[in-house]
């Protein structure tokens, strides 16, 4: 029987569980820091105790603000275990005696046998890594793998007073680096085609090109497997974040394209909104997933209604915003910026799109 586990990039399952501090600790309240969630099963097992001991050699790594450690036991003999007593504020114990939490994470077999493993979660409680404890990889070797994952994550920034931000959602790690490179390669092998925009003229939504307003080249992803790979990553890694942030249930995706803003042509898209014509009125959210960041200069996103701040999303990360917001892609001054640029909408908006097809003179941009 296969053990179900949440996949990389997905939101970690939320739960309530007994801990020495609370009879019902609400796990979702620990968001905002990195989490090491270690399912060790029972400290009576030598392999498991040595792994927990190895974690405690690095307990200075864990605190209440940047990275916390949560151990999960399924053994009632660990219920009064002093092993976790007197530790730092960043070290906690969950007493999962009914094994319900462990089952959510695939950390217990169908027969109820613990399957020791460690999950690393990001600040939004999404799964960054899942590392199994084995008879050959336990103790310090297992902990070294976990610490290596933690060291690869961006350093948590100190608390600051915020400027007036635009109501945008930044979601890192939607596309992994190898997949970003695959999409860039797809574009480069085909070369891209001039990209215009939609404008209302004489009661019709028409496609126009104006290099002063927009200069970009797009390549439609017509490969079925590649489209599905994009869709699945968004479905499991991005759409749950949109649902959480905006309470919007995405059911439709419009267009699968790789876009390129090239400095050779002063790639840019001046301030505009994405839903101001009959042919685009159904669009609810725009998504900009950067495929690279270090190989170009300029190209930042800005939202003039909310100040002069410029937004740069890490490679593989997404910037999500309402199509009603005025926004601009700044000129690329060096190199080429590649991005994956879909629009999102729901079933109600799909009805609007169907009704407005009569006003579209050409195909969507």
Cα end-to-end separation:
47 Å
Helix content class = 10-25%
The CATH topology assignment of the largest domain is: Jelly Rolls
Elements, N to C (H/E): EEEHEEHEEHEHEEEEEHEEEEEEEEEEEH
Describe the structure.
This protein has 365 residues and is of the alpha+beta class. It folds into two domains: 16-152, Glutaredoxin (3-Layer(aba) Sandwich); 169-359, Sandwich (Jelly Rolls), CATH 2.60.120. The chain is built from six helices and 24 strands. It has helices spanning 46-56, 100-104, 140-152, 177-190, 224-246, 347-356, and strands at 16-17, 25-26, 34-41, 67-73, 91-95, 117-121, 127-132, 169-171, 193-194, 197-201, 204-208, 214-215, 217-220, 252-254, 257-262, 268-272, 285-290, 296-298, 301-302, 310-311, 318-322, 327-329, 332-340, 343-345. The strands form five sheets. Strands 8, 9, 13, 14, 15, 17, 18, 21, 23 and 24 form a ten-stranded antiparallel β-sheet that branches. The chain has a five-stranded mixed β-sheet with strand order 5-4-3-6-7, covered by helices on one side. A hairpin with a 2-residue loop joins strand 10 (197-201) and strand 11. The longest helix has 23 residues, at 224-246. The chain starts with 15 loop residues before the first strand and ends in a 9-residue tail after the last helix. The mean pLDDT is 93. This is Redoxin domain-containing protein. It holds the Pfam family 2OG-FeII_Oxy_3. Residues 252-347 form the Fe2OG dioxygenase domain. Keywords: Dioxygenase, Iron, Metal-binding, Oxidoreductase, Vitamin C.
């Amino acid at each position: 029987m296969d053990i179900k586990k949440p996949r990389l990039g997905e939101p970690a399952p939320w739960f309530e569980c007994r801990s020495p501090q609370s009879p019902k600790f609400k796990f979702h309240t620990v968001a905002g820091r990195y989490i090491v969630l270690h399912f060790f099963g029972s400290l009576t097992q030598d392999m498991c105790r040595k792994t927990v001991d190895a974690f405690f050699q690095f307990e200075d790594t864990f605190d209440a603000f940047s990275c916390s450690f949560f151990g999960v036991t399924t053994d009632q003999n660990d219920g009064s275990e002093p092993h976790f007593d007197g530790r730092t504020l960043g070290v906690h114990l969950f007493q999962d005696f009914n094994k319900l939490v462990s089952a959510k994470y695939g950390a217990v077999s169908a027969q109820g046998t613990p399957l020791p493993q460690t999950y690393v979660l990001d600040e939004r409680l999404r799964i960054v890594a899942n590392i199994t404890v084995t008879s050959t990889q336990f103790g310090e070797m297992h902990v070294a793998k976990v610490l290596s994952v933690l060291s690869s994550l961006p350093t948590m920034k100190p608390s600051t007073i915020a400027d007036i931000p635009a109501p945008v959602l930044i979601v890192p790690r939607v596309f992994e680096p190898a997949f970003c490179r695959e999409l860039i390669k797809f574009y480069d092998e085909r070369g891209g085609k001039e990209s215009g925009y939609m404008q209302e003229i004489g009661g019709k939504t028409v496609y126009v090109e104006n290099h002063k307003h927009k200069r970009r080249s797009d390549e439609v992803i017509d490969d079925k497997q590649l489209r599905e790979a994009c869709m699945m990553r968004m479905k499991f890694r991005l759409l749950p974040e949109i649902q959480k942030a905006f309470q919007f249930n995405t059911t439709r995706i419009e267009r699968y394209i790789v876009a390129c803003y090239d400095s050779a042509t002063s790639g840019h898209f001046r301030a505009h909104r994405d839903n101001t014509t009959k042919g685009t009125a159904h669009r609810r959210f725009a998504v900009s997933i950067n495929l690279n960041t270090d190989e170009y200069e300029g190209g930042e996103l800005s939202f003039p209604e909310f100040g002069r701040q410029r937004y740069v999303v890490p490679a593989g990360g997404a910037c999500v915003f309402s199509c009603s917001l005025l926004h601009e892609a700044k000129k690329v001054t060096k190199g080429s910026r590649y991005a994956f640029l879909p629009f999102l909408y729901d079933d109600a908006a799909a009805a609007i799109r169907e009704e407005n097809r009569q006003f579209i003179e050409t195909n969507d941009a």
